[in-house]
């Protein structure tokens, strides 16, 4: 049996001006992971105030994941990896708290404990296969930080059409300095990389994937450059088991995800949802926005495996229409 | 769409000697709701230490609910109504904490807040139908307390073959005295009844059912005398909408549940899982143990509606066999 696991959390790094497009404005960004969890669980908002959209109106990729779930019918689990706003989705706890800005000295003190608790959870889940997604605004910046700390060469994509690379680099450089680390200092110590340069979501994804693989469960990391960072964490934890990274064609077009996956000894698949032929809000994806998130690449891969990829665009539009009508009333 | 909601919590009332059979001994009783949630979600234990069994070896009714879920395939939601031990099941929070002994002055101070949060959740859930189950050792005693406080005439069943009625009556009498209430003093004030004589699970079930009914969602209370108490709470909250109580043939044989449901203007259905023809641990049910719990009556009703009632006994034995093998390894 396949279970889709959404690892949902926050980092104050997202509040840095220009870092994230995962919300219409700074206030709504904090609600995005909580809303994404509700959309995937219920196909509706329950406690979250608004459907997450980018400043230019690109709807959250959680609507795509939900659409696939309604067709393919997989089980789900939401892990609270430091949510910063109420959610009506049921969540499992691993001791994670919202991450602070990576430019602080010890931004994610809960990371090592959350890694261990998530690893135990990954070992204990009875499923044959986990497809893991993430939702954390600002997450590509902390992914860059983690890779620098590990000394892993992973490219960094963005939810914005123009990737603010130099801003991310300067944030990570400040973070390394604040934590008194040089690039590569956290090699083979993944818990330290996520604690000092990362975020609680990467800690949980890394721990969960590690534990699941150790217990013989197949793991698909459904996401873009954040999941490549998670794959690097798994490898730096000493786990050599087969691992797949499944992302979207949008990430694949943006950065060399395939080559990076290969260097990390991961299978790689990029799926195109075919939104280029759509009218309306999904054209924002074809224009290079959002690209990934909330397990979209993993969900598209599940849809493709089930022979249902062609239904995803219409299904997503249906989810969108329904979920902008709050509480289904 | 139908969703099965498990409302899971604890009350220190269960620690009174002779009150509950929901665990092999006093220590394991605290883990029963957490284990029940895992069994229904995963069909396996994840964080809970042991499969809940009565002192004589009757397995938890959660195994029956899980077996039905594997056949019928309904969605689930676990609400944390004051869990007292870790669970690997994802839960939604409504601000409930474990209940204290009803013989104390203010045993469930979180009850009014949890009622309101659960009511909002019930209003917001997008499902067409909720089937609500409960798991709380000691819950029949607090159900008696709530009914006394409301002045509602509801009989009280037991998970033990010999119902310790006089013990329950004396506990409730002490509880009324400690809270300075006479029978009926909390009539039409359900939040007070659950706060002073009840438990956090009844608060959440009452609030959730009230909110769901108010928003036009069908509600089936899947359980025995605790769910009759919950139905009384809903009626005392001023909600006159159609409401169904679905229980097991074991409860129906023990007390006049049908007549009570009729007085509360509820539809009533009692379903027999046919365990009388089984060998092994399920014979404990036919001997009058457990009787209900973890939504068993509601699940059996769903199985019957789907034409799958005949598969429940074998399915339950399969779940039992699998889940005594911890973590599926």
End-to-end distance of chain A, in Å? 34 Å
List the chains of the largest interface with their residue counts: A-B, 25 and 25 residues
Give the helix/strand class of chain A: alpha/beta
Outline of chain A: globular
Please mark out the parts of chain A with pLDDT under 50 across 5 or more consecutive residues, or reply none: none
Mean pLDDT of chain A: 93
Portion of residues within helices of chain A = 40-55%
In the sheet with the most strands of chain A, the strands line up as 3-2-1-4-5-6-7
Strand content of chain A: 5-15%
Order of helices and strands of chain A: EHHHEEHEHHHHEHEHHEHHH
- What about the largest sheet of chain A? 7 strands, parallel
From the alpha carbons, calculate the radius of gyration of chain A and give it in angstroms: 17 Å
Q: What's the total helix number of chain A?
A: 14
Give the number of DSSP strands of chain A: 7
Oligomer: homodimer
What does the secondary structure layout of this molecule look like, with pairings?
2 copies of one chain form a homodimer.
Chain A: E1 2-8, H1 26-29, H2 32-42, H3 62-72, E2 75-81, E3 92-96, H4 111-124, E4 129-135, H5 139-150, H6 165-178, H7 190-197, H8 200-214, E5 218-222, H9 225-236, E6 244-248, H10 249-254, H11 257-263, E7 267-271, H12 283-286, H13 296-305, H14 312-323
Parallel strand pairs in A: 1-2, 1-4, 2-3, 4-5, 5-6, 6-7
Helix pairs in contact in A: 2-3, 3-13, 3-14, 4-8, 5-6, 5-7, 5-9, 7-8, 8-9
């Amino acid at each position: 049996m396949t279970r889709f696991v959404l690892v949902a959390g926050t980092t104050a790094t997202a509040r840095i001006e220009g870092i994230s497009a995962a919300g219409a404005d700074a206030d709504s960004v904090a609600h995005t992971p909580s809303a994404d969890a509700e959309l995937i669980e219920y196909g509706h908002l329950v406690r979250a105030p608004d459907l997450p959209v980018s400043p230019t109106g690109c709807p959250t990729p959680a609507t795509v994941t939900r659409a696939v779930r309604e067709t393919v019918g997989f089980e789900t689990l939401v892990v609270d990896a430091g949510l910063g706003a109420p959610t009506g989705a049921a969540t499992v706890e691993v001791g994670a708290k919202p991450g602070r800005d990576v430019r602080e000295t010890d931004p994610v003190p809960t990371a090592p404990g959350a890694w261990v608790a998530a690893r135990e959870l990954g070992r204990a889940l009875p499923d044959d296969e986990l497809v893991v997604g993430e939702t954390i605004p600002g997450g590509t910046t902390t992914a860059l930080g983690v890779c620098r700390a590990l000394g892993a060469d992973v490219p960094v994509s963005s939810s914005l059409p123009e990737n603010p690379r130099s801003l991310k680099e300067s944030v990570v450089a400040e973070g390394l300095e604040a934590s008194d680390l040089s690039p590569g200092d956290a090699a083979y110590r993944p818990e330290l990389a996520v604690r000092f340069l990362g975020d609680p979501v990467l800690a949980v994804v890394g721990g969960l994937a590690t534990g699941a693989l150790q217990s013989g469960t197949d793991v698909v990391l459904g996401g873009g450059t954040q999941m490549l960072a998670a794959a690097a964490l798994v490898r730096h934890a000493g786990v050599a088991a087969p691992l797949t990274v499944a992302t979207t064609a949008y990430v694949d077009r943006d950065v060399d995800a395939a080559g990076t996956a290969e260097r990390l000894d991961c299978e790689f698949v990029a799926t195109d949802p075919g939104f280029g032929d759509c009218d309306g809000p999904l054209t924002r994806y074809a224009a290079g926005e959002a690209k990934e998130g909330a397990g979209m690449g993993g969900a598209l891969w599940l849809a493709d495996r089930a022979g249902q990829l062609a239904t995803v665009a219409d299904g997503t539009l249906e989810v969108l229409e329904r979920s902008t009508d709050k509480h289904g009333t």
